[in-house]
Design brief:
Layout lengths: L11 E11 L2 E7 L3 E6 L6 H13 L18 E10 L2 E10 L5 E4 L2 E3 L10 E4 L4 H5 L2 H15 L3 H25 L8 H39 L6 E5 L23 H20 L10 E6 L2 E2 H4 L2 H22 L6 E5 L7 H11 L4 E6 L13 E5 L2 E5 L31
Helix pairs in contact: 4-5, 4-6, 5-6, 5-8, 5-9
Keywords: ATP-binding, Cytoplasm, DNA damage, DNA repair, DNA replication, DNA-binding, Nucleotide-binding, SOS response
Family: Belongs to the RecF family.
Function: The RecF protein is involved in DNA metabolism; it is required for DNA replication and normal SOS inducibility. RecF binds preferentially to single-stranded, linear DNA. It also seems to bind ATP.
């Protein structure tokens, strides 16, 4: 953990971020430097929104909401994210128009591109308190974690996942219509056509997820030991609906995707046939990667329901740090940008120090914090004050708010929740 890229690698650095009508920012300009960068501001001022915008370019999604509409400033139709990246001596500008309705638009170096081209240039790994839901939440949280990493690892998977979701919706709509009209299997020849599409796309997703779990196994174990200071033997394994169980219904079937060429597709098609009657009865697609779950264990026990609070945090951190290690090992661009969003306030002193030691070796780290003193001193360089959707400048420009003068007990503005529901954290 914490390897620095060699001089031969051209590490990616975010040099400048511009926002327009994004979350609570009518306009924002933020300069960033190599090494640690800290955004300090009370809850609800907008520091997380800056981190969210950078991460969106890499994952094509928010870590807080599943839809794009909340990202757009109230009363506006679109938000705009513009980032200048340095890849060694080369500079490239990424631009994204996030539309409240309809498809988003993207540009690279001023030229229009498909949005799924952006992750080829932007490598970012973000950890936030919401990530505790990866280990404690429902299966959709773990699927989302895996799929966002798949997109970063192989950008074309964005199109595969999107096509699968559209096929799934259309197939499920057919099942619901058939259920409402009392139609039987023999009366639905078009269902076989949708099965073919679902199997082709879904099998690719299942196999890609299985490879991802295998590749994460060692980095997760190393990261967990580095954060927790103990080896609790963390494990990852997919529970697959194509193997006969339904993780969404607590019928857990374990085992990764089959390795023989075409075997996953055969399993998928067979499972669809076996569940056809139940699908028609319920009007739902009951088999596929949309119903799978990533099982996480420590000490041989499921993290969900058995792990302590500290163990759960360590697993969540380990998943993100392992993701960063995987991306840095595979990318010619070296280190991804690491973003730690309001994380240190959630950790005890020992885990804070351990985490700071692990991430200090990355080429660029962005930390957000309500109180600068929560951030270990080794990461406290280049601290910038954020207030009411404005980037005010470095803390040295505001002597009353320098880290040593800030009190953890300082009250937040009236009505300001810890992580406000509208996302302006």
């Amino acid at each position: 953990m914490g390897r620095r890229a060699s001089p031969a690698e051209w590490n990616m650095i975010v040099e400048h971020l511009s926002l327009k009508d994004f979350r609570n920012y009518a306009e924002a300009e933020l300069e960033l430097r190599p090494g640690p960068n800290v955004l300090v501001g009370r809850n609800g001022q907008g520091k997380t929104n800056l981190a969210e915008a950078i991460a969106y370019l890499a994952t094509l999604g928010s870590h807080r909401v599943s839809a794009d509409a909340p990202l757009v400033l109230e009363g506006k139709d679109a938000a705009f994210i513009r980032a200048r990246l340095a890849h060694g001596e080369r500079r490239v500008t990424l631009e994204l128009q996030v539309n409240k309705q309809g498809s988003n638009k993207a540009r690279i170096g001023g030229s229009p591109v498909r949005t799924n081209e952006l992750p080829r240039y932007a490598q970012v790994v973000l950890f936030a308190p919401e990530d505790l839901q990866i280990v404690r939440g429902d299966p959709s949280s773990r699927r989302r974690f895996a799929d966002q990493l798949l997109v970063q690892r192989t950008p074309r998977m964005s199109a595969v996942l999107g096509d699968y979701d559209r096929t799934l919706r259309q197939r499920t709509a057919l099942l619901k219509s058939a259920r409402a009209r009392g139609m039987k299997n023999a009366q639905l020849p078009t269902l076989d056509v949708w099965d073919d599409k679902l199997v082709a796309l879904g099998s690719e997703i299942i196999d890609a997820r299985a490879r991802l779990a295998q590749d994460l196994a060692s980095p997760v174990a190393e990261a967990y030991a580095a954060i927790a200071g103990e080896d609790h033997r963390p494990q990852l394994e997919w529970a697959l609906s194509v193997r006969g169980g339904d993780p969404e219904s607590s019928e857990v079937a374990q085992g990764g995707a089959a390795t023989r060429s075409g075997a996953t597709a055969e399993l998928f098609r067979s499972a669809l046939q076996e569940r056809r009657a139940a699908e028609l009865e319920r009007g739902l697609t009951l088999v596929g990667p949309h119903r799978d779950d990533l099982l996480l264990r420590v000490r041989g026990l499921p993290v969900k329901g058995y792990a302590s609070h500290g163990e759960s945090w360590s697993v969540a951190l380990a998943l993100r740090l392992a993701s960063a290690e995987l991306l840095r090992a595979e990318s010619p661009g070296g280190d991804p940008v690491l973003i730690l969003d309001d994380v240190f306030a959630e950790l005890d002193a020992d885990r804070r120090a351990r985490l700071a030691g692990v991430v200090a070796g990355y080429e660029q780290v962005l930390v957000t914090a309500a109180v600068a003193g929560d951030v270990p001193e080794a990461l406290r360089a280049n601290a910038v004050r954020i207030e009411a959707g404005r980037v005010l400048g470095t803390l040295s420009d505001h002597p009353l708010e320098r880290p040593e003068a800030m009190s953890p007990a300082a009250p937040a503005p009236a009505g300001d929740d810890a992580r406000s529901a509208d996302g302006d954290a």
